[in-house]
Amino acid sequence: MDAYVVGDPDGLSPLQVELRDAVARELHAQLALRSERIELADVPEVAYQITLRVSETLRGRRTPPA
Length: 66
Description:
This protein is mainly alpha-helical. It has one domain (about 1-60). About 65% of the residues lie in helices and about 0% in strands. Helix 2 (about 15-35) packs antiparallel against helix 3 (about 45-60). It starts with a helix and ends in a 5-residue tail after the last helix.
């Protein structure tokens, strides 16, 4: 995961970098919770958790109204 968190962002925008990192962190967490395996039946829950992490990232980027 560290390779995705540091180093050259491969031409991605800052938002894309943040989203990629959020997805990588959540996948890492989900794999740790599931003994390094994601069963097919667990994919909807994993996708849901990733969606929450992405939403959290997007909320953190919003600037307050002027």
